[in-house]
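Minimal example, chain plus arginine.
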Amino acid sequence: MHVSFQIATDLTQAVTAAAAQAGLDAAGFSPEIRTADPRHGDFQANGVLGYAKARKLNPRAVAESLVAALPVDVKARCDISIAGPGFINFRLKPEVLLQWLTRYGTVDALRSGASSLHHGQRYVVDFSSPNTAKQLHVGHVRGMVIGEAICRMLAFCGATVIRDNHIGDWGTQFGKLIWGYKHLRNDAALTADPLEELERVYKAADAATKNDPAVLDAVRAELVKLQAGDTENLDLWKRINAVSSGAFTEIYQKLDIHFDHQLGESFYNDRLGVVYEELSRLGLAEESEGALVVFHPEHPRFKTQPFIIRKSDGAANYASTDLATMLYRAEHFQADAIVILTDARQSDHFEQLWLTTQKWFARTQRRLPRFEHVSFGSILGEDGKAIKTRSGDPIRLKALLAEAEERALALVNEKSPELPEAERREIAAAVGIGAVRYADLSQNRSSDYVFAWDKILSLEGNTAPYLLYAMARIHSIFRKHGIDVATAGQGQGATAPETETELALARKLVGFASALELTTQQLRPHFLCTYLYELAGAYSAFYNADKVLVEDPAIRARRLLLCSRTLLVLESGLSLLGLRTLQRM
Ligand code: ARG
């Protein structure tokens, strides 16, 4: 008998077939299988309730006829019960748990099992996407770490993922940047800390325009020259972008964040004409006070609040480039889905962008990809307000990451002073950066969250240090007894889980499939975090209750198998979230 990775999918198929067999009207019946309350089963089908209610049937009777029609192999694999007014609960038999654990025993096996979830789907994921010449600060971290995690998870689940860093490398800020670069820059400072210096130059130029109308004119003239393609200004623009992008790369490396493309806003400069032309010709866009705008009459707000797609001075804006970007991603990348990450304040923009794109593509008979604006809340300081330094500036990401490593090093020095210094530093980097990352990922991205060092670096609770430490402890058992982690318990006659804690742990491990499915459907990494935290809890309950290295070879083998699989799933899960895992801590 063949056990598949996502058992819920098999059950859905079985329930669909049984519903037909039992004479249920397919159109009115949802065969959906959910994760059940562990007290009642592993999976649950609730479709009978709505079905029976709508038809004034007795739900229990419908449930009974459905269960009677289930294929024999499902009955052989699960204990099935009907609860309350017609919930059907499936509890996997211990032998099935053992089969799953045996079959999905390597990262490759897990990946090939998971690959059916998003197989053949092409995702373009636009994340990080900072603006040129601006420091990366703590507010940028969410888009980066959530984006990276989403990319890794989708790829693991079989999707083709195209990662695009849509840098804000064009726009009116370049008037000030170029003028400032020409007149105010300090070359030594630019080498030492490029973003710092570019930001200073920008601010100084901005201040100068306020004090001196002649500077304001000069700044405007620089922008006009750039937009007209003046070679000197184009060169400077390129230089500024290169300097800026080099500084971004440093942080990306530190956070292990990768892109396949960096198609910034400027890439779309000569792809805007078709946007204006088509939207005007189709009657979607209209002139309003000199600007080109799109209204959405069916929408309560956007029927009066315009989507400005070209400014009244004829210049392009954020909306113009994003429309061109949608087209490029649909046509050039053949995207099935486009995912853009920004904070929630841009929700209106993306709602208008998507409404406009749907109409535009429908009227030009283009294939419409799915679209998802993955938005997120803010990071707050312990006072509940937007997190700032004492002087009131946003906290630089570079400084935040350095502090994370420093604090983690103090922790490691205290816990494991016997390890060589180089290793302690390495552990500190993994723990510190991992803690910042995990703190972010473990929160529902829609909410704001409070950033507190003590909490995120704690060895207790749903934190990176707790999970990394749980892994290190399992490794140490194997090390101490000279047992190979990868092959532990295999081919040694492991029997099916039996004790309550063995069973609970085994069920949790099998639940990895559902956790991945939920996380990638909703593009919310916190579901995977919660799952990993619960898995670590189930392991610890098992470890406290059941001695692993017992005499009986079959019991010993199955317990070693559970340890080894716990390690595998924790390792795979944390890597998908972007964390570096450790053997010792
Ligand atoms: N550069 C923008 C910002 O910093 C984010 C860009 C997101 N991507 C997009 N296609 N609009 O807010």
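Residues 171-258 form one domain. Residues 231-254 form the longest helix (24 residues).
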